[in-house]
Design brief:
The chain contains 11 helices and 9 strands. By secondary structure, the chain is α+β, with helices and mostly antiparallel strands. Belongs to the class-II aminoacyl-tRNA synthetase family. Phe-tRNA synthetase alpha subunit type 1 subfamily.
Length: 339
């Protein structure tokens, strides 16, 4: 029995010395001291030992267990120390190094301009309404009093998917859809992406954004339109801003007008920004054509209204004095971080 215990002790000592990781050391513990370990097997064989020899054999087994546990504890302490030192060496922090900067994103110039416009009109009691970008020609053209032979329906100007489906060229279809619902009065703006077959240059893009507004109620006049747009211009460009209405033609409004604002750079005196005129064109507008009201199920004898439309990119270009529309879409961080 003594020779058996000595052999177990020698083998355990060799295994413990060869253990270079804590998991391997645990395997040694299980192999020698576990429920099915070698020392446990010796203790289970005590029934075959003569009664008078059992105390001596038991003492020998306990001494062997104590030696194995001592060797394992010493090895465990050494391995944990080595592991801790290696970890500390790998995680050294040089407090003299500059800290890593957290690059936090922010809103795009278009988004900033859109939120400003929405704030102004929501403050006037308008609601923001959105619609589909893939639209029916009936809503994009017909219900807006644009006949089939109108140049805007040409394929070189509009992206057609089928004869009756297209990528909307304006957000006016949202106005037509809202009027069709028959929930009057209406005070709304319709911002969104639109598509036209334009070549990319400093002032054009095949994909851009519009904000169109619509008011339908009883006794609405052109004076209401002028007052609304004057207030909008002052809120957007400053309280000293003046507006000028020039006669124009749009199929879906009558009468129609283009709106200019006094140059906010020179105060209307004339400068490079306004090309010496003192005025800057910002949007188109007009009274909703009676035929448009009829096609959308509204009685033009009882209700009148006005509509207007402004390019979101145009507002951003003017407000932030950007001279090339392409800068808004190139995602150049050096440009975008200025806003």
């Amino acid at each position: 029995m003594k020779e058996t215990l000595q052999a177990i002790l020698d083998e355990a000592s060799e295994k413990i010395e060869q253990s270079d990781a804590l998991d391997k050391l645990n395997d040694v513990r299980v192999n020698f001291l576990g429920k099915k370990g070698q020392l446990t097997s010796v203790l289970k064989g005590m029934k075959d030992v003569a009664p008078e020899d059992r105390p001596k054999v038991g003492q020998m087994v306990n001494e062997a267990r104590a030696k194995i546990e001592t060797m394992m504890e010493e090895t465990k302490t050494r391995l944990e120390k080595e592991l801790r030192e290696a970890k500390m060496a790998a995680e050294v922090i040089d407090v003299t190094l500059p800290a890593k900067k957290a690059n936090v994103g922010h809103r795009h110039p278009n988004t900033i301009a859109l939120e400003e416009v929405e704030r102004i009109f929501i403050g006037m009691g308008y609601e923001v309404v959105e619609g589909p970008e893939v639209e029916y020609a009936d809503y994009n053209f017909t219900k807006l009093n644009i006949p089939e032979d109108h140049p805007a329906r040409d394929e070189q100007d509009t992206f057609f998917i089928t004869d009756s489906i297209l990528l909307r060229s304006q957000t006016s279809p949202v106005q037509a859809r809202t009027m069709e619902q028959g929930k009057l009065p209406i005070r709304m703006i319709a911002p969104g992406r639109v598509f036209r077959s334009d070549e990319v240059d400093a002032t054009h893009s095949p994909s851009f954004h519009q904000i169109e507004g619509l008011v339908i109620d009883k006794h609405i006049t052109f004076a209401d339109l002028k007052g609304t747009l004057e207030e909008f211009a002052k809120e957007l460009f400053g309280p000293e801003t003046k507006t000028k209405f020039r006669p124009h033609h749009f199929p879906f409004t009558e009468p129609s007008a283009e709106v200019d604002v006094s140059c906010f750079k020179c105060g209307g005196k004339g400068c490079r920004f306004c090309k010496g005129s003192g005025w800057i064109e910002i949007l188109g507008c007009g009274m909703v054509h009676p035929h448009v009201l009829e096609m959308c199920g509204i009685d033009p004898e009882e209700y009148t209204g006005f509509a207007f439309g402004v390019g979101l990119e145009r507002i951003a270009l003017l407000k932030y004095e950007i001279d090339d529309m392409r800068l808004l879409y190139e995602n150049d961080y050096r440009f975008l971080k200025q806003f």
